[in-house]
Each structure stands twice: as C-alpha cells, then as structure tokens.
C-alpha cells in the first residue's frame, strides 16, 4: 500500500512497479507471511490477481 487516498480507498504498487489507484479494502487480501513488508493481492475488480 503506497497511499490511503481516503478512509475507504488506497493506492497500491504491484510487483511490476505499476501504481493501482482507487482500491477499496474489500478488493484486497493480505499475502502471507505478515511482516515488515506486508503485501496485498487484489481479489476483485479489473486489477484482480495483481500483487
């Protein structure tokens, strides 16, 4: 997660370095393991499958 644009919307950076804006919490899933460099995967919407 790069930025929280609003309380219910964020901007994330993919493994390829692309910024994806306007993601909502319901569209994301934490990729295990949890730690200092937590990652999320988009599970809904047009960017589904991106990490």
- Strand-and-helix sequence, N→C? EEEEE
Instruction: Determine the fraction of residues in helical runs and give it as a percent range.
Output: under 10%
Q: What fraction of residues sit in β-strands? A: 35-45%
Spatial ordering of strands, largest sheet: 1-2-3
Oligomer: single chain
| DSSP helical segment count | 0
Q: What is the β-strand count?
A: 5
**Alpha-beta classification:** mainly beta
Global shape: globular
The main pleated sheet reads as: 3 strands, antiparallel
Mean pLDDT: 82
Low-confidence stretches: none
Mind telling me the C-alpha Rg? Answer: 10 Å
Question: Please, how many domains?
Answer: 1
Distance between the termini: 10 Å
Description of the molecule:
By secondary structure, the chain is mainly β. The protein has one domain. The chain has strands at residues 3-6, 9-13, 19-23, 28-31, 39-42. Strands 1-2-3 form a three-stranded antiparallel β-sheet, with no helix packed on it. Strands 4-5 form a two-stranded antiparallel sheet. The radius of gyration is 10 Å and the shape is globular. The chain starts with a strand and ends in a 9-residue tail after the last strand. The model has no long low-confidence stretch (mean pLDDT 82). Belongs to the MOS2 family. InterPro entries: Spp2-like.
Give a nutshell description of this structure:
The chain is an all-beta fold and 51 residues long. The protein has strands at residues 3-6, 9-13, 19-23, 28-31, 39-42. The mean pLDDT is 82.
